[in-house]
Amino acid sequence: MLTELQATKTESQRAGAGGVTLWLTGLPSAGKSTVARAAAEVLARRGHRVEILDGDEIRAVFGSSGFDRAARDENVRRIGWLAELLARNGVTVLVASIAPYRETRDQVRASHERAGLPFVEVHAAASVESCVARDVKGLYARQRRGEISGVTGIDDPYESPVAPELRLYTDREDVSLSVAAVIEYLTTHELV
Questions:
Q1: For the APS kinase domain, which residue ranges apply (predicted)?
Q2: Dist CA 191 CA 118 (whole Å)
């Protein structure tokens, strides 16, 4: 009799040797990183190889020339390249990145598709008001005080996904519901 872990690995192997990129996009403080971390824990417990790529962490490691459109697009392309590299090596990649521009997210998706790798866009849909109330990193407060500008959703645009594979209402539902939706999607589409 197979243990639960062995059974899960067998199911994962049937899904193919390749990995998958699950890209959580949304406003600052929408809950992208929270959902990514919680979903990664569930997947890891089930025996999957999982990595989280957090947009802020990637920016800190690789540096960036700023927050204008060109710099934001370059950061998203870097994250996309890393995600593709990991997915190509059988890793389930959970990306938590604002990635404000639809065109750049579409470029990352197209690159995954050319490589034969699944790309799942997940919109962490939360209202600006709820994100301002959470203000996890203090961005909105700093913008109100005039210390910074270019805050996505306030004085810089955020282009919501038109047809994401998943839309999570992270300002209205508990994290566990969002994570369950992510796991269910990956499982029912045989991506894990």
A1: 19-168
A2: 8
